[in-house]
Amino acid sequence: MGDNDGLLETLRELRRHLDRDLFPLAIGDVTADRRALRELTGQLDDYLIPRLNAIDAPLLAVVGGSTGAGKSTLVNSLVDADVSEPGVLRPTTMAPTLVTSPADRDWFTAQNILPGLPRVTGNGRGEPGTLRVVTTEALPPGLALLDAPDIDSVVTANRELAAQLLAAADLWLFTTTAARYADEVPWSFLRSASERSTALAVILSRVPPEALGVVRKDLARLLEANGLGGTQLFEVPELVLPEENARLPRQAVRPIADWLTAIAADSRSRADVVRHTLSGALESLSTRVPALAGAVERQHAGAAELRSMADAAYAVGLASFDEGMRDGSLLRGEVLARWQDFIGTGDLMRSLENRVGRLRDRVVAFVTGRPAPESELRVALESGVEALIRASADGAAERLMESWSSHPAGRALLEREGVATAGRLGRASADLPARAQEAVRGWQSYVLDLVRKEGADKRTTARITSFGLNGAGLLLMLAVFASTGGLTGIEVGIAGGTSVLSQKVLEAVFGDQAVRTLTVKARSDLRARVAILLGEDADRFIALLDAVQPPESTAPALRATADAVREHLRELPVANRRAALSPGTAPEGAGSAASATTAPEEGSETVRDSRRRSDGVQHPAERPDFPHATGGPGHSRSPGGSGGAPRADGDPDSPRPPGGPDGVPRVSGPDDGGRRAPGAGEAGEE
């Protein structure tokens, strides 16, 4: 394929962008997004990067299909050795088996492809999650067969592994049966092969003699209708085998074996197969990668929504603190008691407006002459502000937990963190009290600095000195909480008198306008400090998002690499799919029990002929010398597969297609539970 270093490096860059959880949040159809991510990273690791790195490496043909399709029996028959274990129990293939020639053994055991599957060699069966590698002289160099698990296995891990192996194949050998060829599950894989232009051959097995040619023609029609016209199609008849695990007669699989051997022997054909599948997989990136980028952007949008919930919850918390500053609630309880001690009277509030001068004298005497309880008032005020901060933070955290819990993405994120962490998130952080105390003390220092700076001129300095700096500062702090909207009864009068007294004394020292300016500055500074505290508390939630959210650059980087891959694809030679997968590759006149055809392509003469005439060709199964014909030595057919004689895939209990008109079998009827492929009708219907 020429110099592909640029393309290879682009794929490695793409892989680096995918090397993290891009979809941590339950946004949209996140299950499908995660599956698409796994499939793409798997194909990069298992196929695209290894294949580009060694373009002349042996060709890997993966034998895949539905349960009971006879995949293991087919592999054993193709290599004429019991390398894979068939059977009637399901699932049969627990660990996939890769069969290769001795010449290619080192390549496949070195984990160049499918690096995530540990290798098992020798005669062992292999454990689930491993790849068993077997060598045989029956396979030519340059070709390996891989027996994959069932694509419709009842075991989820087997289904996922089957999809992974098919994505790592240079060539799909897709096996189905006359009874199951129209089921939906196989066709979902076949449509994927069509979308990604994967080199493909379909093997129709267990075909009753009366349906040979008829079912094949209907399958060819379905292939053409689903964008797979021109697909190589082999037909293997249903045979009665001497024992459960017996291999098919060589004559039954010779066209398939000869076709594969011809591809392996011809370096040009082999290269065309590789180019065809590789190019198709690379071209699929132009849609798959941007789709992932769009899903990543949905993750960012979902994260932004969760962040906005955090902003809203803590904004309400800050508003709650604002209300607490203005409603006078801080001037009740302990603060009120300490204020009364500070003033030194219990009936001070009576006739307050005309006694400010006298009160000032008493305050001065108290502050300058006797042991002042101002420190107790300062501590009480400090404790009240801290309690208000904690209450605001607790309310914000609880509110945000409720918001996130009602959102699928937020709920999943909290569940991911666990019950203990979620419980801690529902209240203010443990270190908030210490940080609040530090913030309030910082604010008190700021207020004292305001008083000191405002009293810089000599006249004001003298007035402040008469009251004491700390006393004046405390009066300004009390003035910040001037409203009484949250109090009732006698507390309203007391708290209101407290704030009025503070303001009157301050006005006497600084003047009306200065007091208003000082109060606004003090309140704004306290609010800013609390906003920082609440923001830091909200950061606990934001940190959860930051820990899982992909970088903002991910989506643009994915689109850029998809564009780069598209540019590099123009440098690659075009694969000759027809030459590589031509039915003429198999020798003519092989005298086999299987037949090989090519599914017609839209507009071809074959399609036009099939729509106006029936298949009048005598098929091998109809010839008197065919091994399974009545009276044939060792292969007499039990009608309907009864009498305990194993079927072709070793499953004596597999259902046979119920008969339809003219002896033509129905496929995927209501009794077998299978969904029909698009366009599927009765076998042989036009």
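The above is record 1. Record 2 follows with the same two-line structure.
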Amino acid sequence: MRTAVDTSAASATDEARPSSGIRGVAGLTRGGRDLAPWGLAGVLFLAYTTVSVLRWEKFGTRSWDLGIFEQAIRGYAQLQAPIADLKGPGAHILGDHFSPVTALIAPFYRLFPGPVTLLVAQAALFALSVVPVTRAASRLLGRGGGLCLGLAYGLSWGLQRAVDFDFHEIAFAVPLIAFSLEALLAERWRAALLWALPLVLVKEDLGLTLTAIALVVAWRAHRRAKAGDKAAGETGAAAARSAEAADDAGAAGARRALPYSYAVAAFGAIAALLVFVWIIPAFNTAGSYEYWNRVEGGFPNPFAGWDVKLRTLAWLLLPTGLFALRSPLVLIVLPTLGWRFVSSDDSYWGTEWHYSAVLMPVVVLAAADGIARSRRRGERAWLTKYASQAPLAAAAVALALTVSLPLGTLTDPAVYRVPASARQADALLDRIPDGATVESNIGPISRLTSRCRVLWIGNSQGVTPDYLALDNRSGRYPDPVAHARRLHPDARFSQWGSAGGFVVLKLVT
């Protein structure tokens, strides 16, 4: 399989030629800047926000994660430690995952306390990432091709799954990676490294992604320097002095970037190691990193669930026509896919949840780079023709897939109606007084974490709550009072209220 000889991006002539198969695409500009990427991002922001907020309004929360992050961000907003009692009474969030970057939401949360603030922030971060992806693709493929790939990216299944699954810290990683790769493709080597550096503050494994980005920067910068040296030796002196001078400057810049790239690569690996073996255990009540147990028997087994993993790879590469495989940028997916595929937890292997969101800007921009390479002179005629239609095809595929993805639900008028049972459940939970200690399962959590101390059901670790709040829509608790007695044998609870399939018990003695 060809990964192409890298003279970095296409030549200036190739980059300026619109070759998306879409001609005469007009749009708004301001001060010479194209506003279309921002317009696309704005539309997608509204769509992402609508999907996630409507799900929350209808009690469609799928896990405890939104509540955990709200507890941590509430702590930051109050200038206190980020305690997530859902992970255990007094549990420090940095002892679970190393994500101090979420403190950036705290000022907004202070102004607008509640889980919707987190959902809107996540939608804004995902939508922001559309801008660098679209701009970078436009530089490589022309404006029409860039907008097509920007749309394909914004509708990508990885982003849609993440939007539909509450809130997660990786929302910060997605735009950081997108801006970093935009700079890389434009040969702004130091900017690429600087955009990627904060990844170490997003999640513990992303230090390895930083290392991968830095190594790809080093690879391309090295090739750019070599190409510049070769051109300087072959160019006729008088005919191309200005071009030669520009090429010399580009090659010199690439050479200067090499030591920085290697230093950042080493920093990413060292930072990840320190976070895994020292920082997280220091904050963890058990003194360890609890996710090591996700590796079966202590040894990785990458062949377990191989069919699911192959389907995930297909979903990553096929929507953009396999062009990502023609760019070295695709190597940046390896750290994330690596830890996911060696884990014994099968929830990491597939296309559900939020785990693939960080891969989307990598795969789409690798595809843009691969398409640009395939259009150069000297490539096979069939490949050049195929590449000329690839951006439009990718947008069409993304639109077709969206029918079965979360954004596709926005075409159904019924999705905008909040059922009466949800309003009734809201009214019941609103009656729980502020500051109360509540033990809860998933459904009520994110209605309470902004104003109560919320514990996970069955994990109160000796703390007796004032209330138990249960989502009983499935009928899981035929006798809620008896269940409370099993959880807290020395306490007595009585049913305090029920509505919309939810039950609240109150401590009597």
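Strands lie at 29-30, 33-34, 437-440, 453-456, 467-471, 493-499, 502-507.
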